[in-house]
Amino acid sequence: MIKTIMTILKKEMMSYFEGVSAWVILSVYILTSMFVTFFVGGFFSINNSGLFSFFYFQPYIMALLIPSITMRLWAEERKSGTLEFLLTQPISVLSVVIGKYLAAWLMSSIMLLLSIPLWIYLNIYFSADNLNIISGYTGCILITGSFCALGCLISSFCSSPAVSYLWGLIILFCLNVSDFSSIIEAMHLPQIIELRLHKMLSLSSHYYDLINGQVGLDNILYFILIIIICLWLNVMSIDYKKN
Question: Domain limits at 99?
Fold first, then answer.
């Protein structure tokens, strides 16, 4: 299984860098991140010892770019007709799903690595809260992992990469801004329970806790649970097509 996962991972990573797509994604990421950090986030006008101006906008930037990383993972296989060939091979669906997912997560992690010079710059010229920054990067890695899992799942239901990108963009942006308030309020629960449900279900709440240095187990488990559920549904989706 490990050998299959590594083969799929290598194949998908090579496909990113064989063309220009990886370089375009990486360029757009670093330019967008630096623009919002310095000009929208007011890098020099607020206390940025924890790189708050950078981390605050990452969920929205990732929601824009991660669908472009995951859109072709399954949709392109269906469009080109290679999915049927892949599923007839003596390999488990789980290993293929994990291999494709890890390729997307690795690609998104490479994007994050491009921001390391900003961290170095902060340490040289300003006073940096490095523990808070490590917590912030932990939040970024977890949220990109969750978005990649969701993107892979969406791609498995689409027959066109363009459609996969559009649905991924919509769903990830909705997930960023939603706290499920209308659903929770419709349940007519006591206020204290409503507040706890808002906190428990809101992706942004867990992420902003992490970038503020609150590395709670509940915050980490929230993202891990999203990843596990999405990968499990991804396996079910492909298994259904295989059968």
Answer: 2-178+223-242
Residue 204, domain member (yes or no): no
* Closest to 12 measured CA to CA, from 129, 127, 102, 120: 102
DSSP class of 49: T
Note the pLDDT tens digit of each residue in 134-175: 999 999 999 999 999 999 999 988 888 899 999 999 999 888
pTM of the predicted structure, to 2 decimals: 0.89
How many domains, the chain? 1
Nearest to 243 by CA among 111, 64, 87: 87
Q: Is 140 part of any domain?
A: yes
Other CB atoms within a 10 A radius of the CB of residue 205 amount to 14
Distance CA 43, CA 46 (A): 6
In a domain, 211, yes or no: no
- Report whether 124 contacts 53 (CB < 8 A): no
Separation CA 196–CA 48 (nearest Å): 29
Instruction: Report the b/e string of 226-242 with b at 16+ CB within 10 A.
Output: bbeebbebbbebbeeee
Task: Give residues with Cβ within 8 angstroms of 8, minimum separation 6.
Answer: 95, 96, 98, 99, 100, 103
Residue 203 forms part of a structural domain: no
CA distance linking residue 138 with residue 171, whole number of Å = 22
